[in-house]
Specification:
519 residues; alpha/beta; Diaminopimelate Epimerase, Chain A, domain 1; 19 helices; 26 strands; hydrolase activity, acting on carbon-nitrogen (but not peptide) bonds; Amidohydrolase
């Protein structure tokens, strides 16, 4: 017995104009699409419920192809620094928060959105006797107070390969840590099995409210013992039905391979993850020449070319593809160069993550490689306040190149990199199709609404080989879909951001529904 959905605008996403008015769902599967009358006659007594969509739009449920699921769940329950516009208000909220493993933590500040930038002196005044940590929104930069700095064993003279200790003009440590300098903090903040399970549940509950029922995630080196993290994933994904595709950080790849974990159908394993550079906001993304607002630095090279080559060779020895965080133009060039030397196994794709600043000649080289690119259209909105200053107008032409990346023939998948950015898919659709934010105009690099939706529906499942049962609304596919008030194809500008999600359905069951009073 099943449900017949009628009087809707149901977009299968198989191709741009494939639209139906009715859909029959039985248990966890889509059985048929078509016209209401024909489906009524065909299935008759098997229909035990009619769901009138009243003209609403239906799409395949979303998959976020780049997220840190446990980290997102943790951030939900911590001080969200991005909510504050004054340092005083942020400090008051910070003081009220419960410490994590004895460390006071706030997540996601952006100095361009505060009335003044946070400093070590400010953080020391808030917490003179207890360790405190304030993470920048990109999580590649963090501010620590003196107590935590000393606990980490750092000095102003400490040299860190792939990262750095920030220094003030007088040569003293200024409290800022960059990229690899943050790694010791992972152990200090690490969760246990129960805390990680709670974080996963919080994350999944929130994602359902955005229509997201699956994710590609990378968490295995940040939150404690690998076996415990995997166990948390096993229990929570089986409990919720939320599918996760896990990347494996290179720091734990040996341990992961040795464990040879058995995974449920709600989990799959992807590429070995590594970082080539940092982020543009903290000036740690690796550029070919100095930053326009600080020519003394080109960013941080997390791995030398030789180290990068060795890491890719290690992945290949285990039969893994490689996923690399690359934001700056030089970082992407370095990764592409290694992939040209050590290409992915036949029939497999390596993964380029972010690809924010890409030179034209690098696009031509990507065209020849078997890769997928996981892009974050929403970064255009997040970076708008500082990106012109960081890159200058000339390099801005190389940035946020969605259309150019798509034209390489690489498979594009979309994500928000939560908790770094808000996972609300509407923001990504807006950025991808509108192409403007603040002083930044990238309308020459926009996608059609169809192609933007593919980033979060069909394409992530092509990447994980779950295509054929997920990512489209076709007979035989899983009944995973979202119902929106309006059709995104007919919306422009802020109307895209305001299109209300009415219902999220996962395997035939409603996992999120807007409040009845608003429906």
């Amino acid at each position: 017995m099943g449900t017949l959905y009628v009087n809707g605008l149901i977009r299968t996403m198989a191709h741009e104009e494939d639209v139906h008015s009715a859909m029959f769902v039985e248990k966890t599967r889509i059985i048929a699409m078509g016209e209401e009358g024909k489906l009524r006659r065909r299935f008759g007594r098997r229909i035990d419920q009619i769901h009138d969509l009243n003209g609403k739009a239906v799409y395949p449920a979303f998959t976020d192809a780049h997220i840190h699921l446990i980290g997102y769940g943790e951030a939900i329950n911590r001080v969200d620094a991005s909510r504050y516009t004054t340092l005083e208000a942020l400090g008051q909220a910070f003081l009220k928060a419960e410490p994590v493993n004895g460390i006071h933590v706030a997540e996601g500040y952006d100095e361009t959105k505060l009335d003044r930038a946070p400093t070590k002196a400010w953080l020391n005044q808030l917490f003179p006797d207890a360790p405190a940590l304030l993470k920048r929104t990109d999580r590649h930069t963090a501010l620590v107070n003196d107590v935590l700095f000393q606990q980490l064993g750092y000095k102003a003279s400490t040299v860190i390969e792939g990262g750095k200790v920030g220094l003030s003009d007088n040569g003293e440590a200024d409290g800022f840590l960059y990229d690899a300098a943050l790694e010791p903090l992972y152990a200090l903040q690490a969760g246990n099995l129960e805390r990680n399970k709670a974080s996963l549940r919080s994350a999944i509950k929130n994602l359902y409210q955005y229509g997201i029922i699956a994710a590609h995630t990378e968490d295995l080196s940040y939150h404690g013992d690998v076996a415990d993290i995997l166990q948390a994933y096993k229990e929570v994904t089986q409990e919720t039905g939320f599918h996760t595709h896990l990347l494996v950080h290179h720091l734990v790849i040996d341990e992961f391979v040795q464990q040879q974990p058995t995974l449920p159908s709600t989990m799959s394993i992807g590429a070995m993850k590594l970082f080539v550079d940092g982020a543009l906001g903290g000036r740690t993304a690796l550029l070919g020449r100095g930053y326009s607002d600080d020519p003394t630095t080109r960013g941080i090279e997390v791995h030398t070319p030789e180290q990068l080559e060795q890491l890719v060779k290690r992945a290949r020895s285990y039969g893994f593809t490689v996923a690399a965080h690359v934001i700056g133009d030089l970082a992407i060039e370095r990764f592409v160069q290694v992939l040209e030397k050590y290409p992915a196994p036949k029939g497999k794709r390596d993964r380029i993550i972010h690809a924010t600043v890409v030179r034209p000649e690098t696009l031509a080289r990507i065209r020849k490689l078997p890769v997928l690119i996981d892009v974050q259209p929403v970064f255009l909105l997040d970076d708008a306040d500082f990106i012109v200053d960081r890159l200058g107008l000339n390099r801005l032409d190389w940035s946020y190149r969605l259309r150019s990346l798509a034209e390489t023939g690489a498979l594009l998948c979309g994500g928000a990199d939560a908790p770094i950015s808000d996972p609300d898919v509407r923001r990504s659709l807006y950025a991808a199709t509108e192409g403007t934010a603040g002083r930044v105009n990238k309308t020459n690099e926009t996608l059609s609404m169809f192609d933007a939706l593919l980033l979060f529906t069909k394409n992530p499942h092509l990447a994980t080989e779950t295509h054929g049962r997920k990512g489209l609304l076709l007979p035989g596919y899983d009944a995973d879909f979202v119902i929106f008030e309006e059709d995104f194809y007919r919306l422009r500008g802020e109307a895209i951001l305001n299109n209300r999600l009415v219902e999220t359905v996962q395997a035939g069951k409603t996992v999120y529904q807007a409040e009845a009073a608003l429906v």
